[in-house]
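Today's session is about reading a structure prediction critically. Students often jump straight to the picture, but the first step is always the sequence itself: look for stretches that repeat, for charged clusters, for runs of hydrophobic residues. Only then move on to the predicted structure, which in these notes is written as discrete structure tokens rather than atom positions. Here is the chain we will use throughout the hour.
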Amino acid sequence: MTSQLNVDAIVDKAGSGGTNVKVANTSVTVAEGGSATTTTVQGLAKHWSTSNTAGSAVLDSFNLSSLGDTATGKETRNFTNNMGNNDYSPIALTGTGDNNGNHHPLLNHSVATDSYMVWAFNGGTLTDNPVASTVHGDLA
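Below is the predicted structure for this chain, in token form.
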């Protein structure tokens, strides 16, 4: 017989709320169909951020300490908490462009445990554009 736990809230022993409740990095999540599983921690984004133009202003973010405006169309995104190695997976998109999709962000191969660089292009030319990005991988 399997066990089931039904609760309205989970809090720590002190009763201070969910921010102090920890889930082990070995916890497993069962897929919607029930046949596949994944470790919960591996499936979470470790960083995401949006900016209005390259390097100028953060609209919203998670695990972002700052943006660096390196040059026109180039920005560095600096982590609050470093990644465990340089083998993480950053992905970036630009939120503007014409109907032909002429704005194309490119993640520069310049990734480090504390940051990564995004380049935004319009028709082959580096251009300051809004950029949204996310990172999956292991935190340090």
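Discussion point for the tutorial: The radius of gyration is 19 Å.
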